[in-house]
Inverse folding.
């Protein structure tokens, strides 16, 4: 099943799939063990930084082999690409899905570049996600609010032919300084107006009941990144500070287990 088909079927049933970013073999292992043990599908996501870190072919091969090995239904997705060369390279190397993020560009420019990304992806029958509005990235001002405008979103989806839209409804990337207030009214409006599945970015730190409510209002893909990265490294730090053992084959499994527990819990958010 292609990711487009999966997302459309989820849209019909008000359900969502978890999209988890991985950063190395260990975080990938934690995610896949959780998916296997919960019998859940999962989207494995890579950002440009993670691709630069692991190497494109290494990262894709590792993800594909992992899905086969753990017998998990899954897809490989490029998260937040802001250049078309990266999109093309990822499609060529076997990604099932890409996100072109032109959300910081002027509206017309975002449409223009997203359209090119859609055209490239069609050659590979790959899924295309785009973003409208402002979901603060790590290090950006999380106090600034710019919700996705419904009318703008309608035009954007019609013009570009994307398969899924990341919406700004009050989430931010990274952790929250104060309790996040999601704009469910806007989400519901967007869900009514658009025929395509919607995506929630910045779900790390959003309470379970809020994510579930968002899923009931058209969110079909829930992204988790920061919490995975932080869980892994904080557990490595903790185990190294508690013991003199420096064998990575006995210290890393503790952190992998923590990632697994985190992801197992996150599956409850989308089901
Ligand atoms: Zn994101």
């Amino acid at each position: 099943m292609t990711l487009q088909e999966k997302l459309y079927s989820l849209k019909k049933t008000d359900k969502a799939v978890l999209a988890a970013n991985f950063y190395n073999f260990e975080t990938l292992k934690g995610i896949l063990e959780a998916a296997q043990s919960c019998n859940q599908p999962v989207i494995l996501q890579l950002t440009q930084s993670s691709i630069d870190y692991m190497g494109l072919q290494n990262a894709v091969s590792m993800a594909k082999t992992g899905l086969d090995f753990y017998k998990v239904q899954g897809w490989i997705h490029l998260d937040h690409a802001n250049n078309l060369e990266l999109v093309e390279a990822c499609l060529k190397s076997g990604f099932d899905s890409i996100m072109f993020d032109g959300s910081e560009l002027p509206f017309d420019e975002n449409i223009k570049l997203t359209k090119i990304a859609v055209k490239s992806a069609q050659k590979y029958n790959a899924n295309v996600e785009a973003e409208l509005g402002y979901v603060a990235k790590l290090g950006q001002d999380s106090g600034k609010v710019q919700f996705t405008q419904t009318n703008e979103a309608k035009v954007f989806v019609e013009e570009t032919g994307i398969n899924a839209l990341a919406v700004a409804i009050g989430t931010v990337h990274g952790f929250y300084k104060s309790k996040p207030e999601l704009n469910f009214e806007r989400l519901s409006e967007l869900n009514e107006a658009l025929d395509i599945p919607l995506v929630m970015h910045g779900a790390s730190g959003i309470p379970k009941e809020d994510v579930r409510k968002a899923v009931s209002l058209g969110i079909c893909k829930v992204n988790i990144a920061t919490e995975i990265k932080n869980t892994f490294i904080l557990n490595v730090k903790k185990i190294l500070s508690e013991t003199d053992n420096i064998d990575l084959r006995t210290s890393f499994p503790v952190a992998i287990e923590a990632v697994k527990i985190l992801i197992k819990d996150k599956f409850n958010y989308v089901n």
Notes: Residues 80, 173, 201, 223 surround zinc ion (CB under 6 Å). The first strand starts at residue 17 and ends at 21. The chain is about 55% helix and 15% strand. Residues 161 and 199 are 16 Å apart (CA to CA).
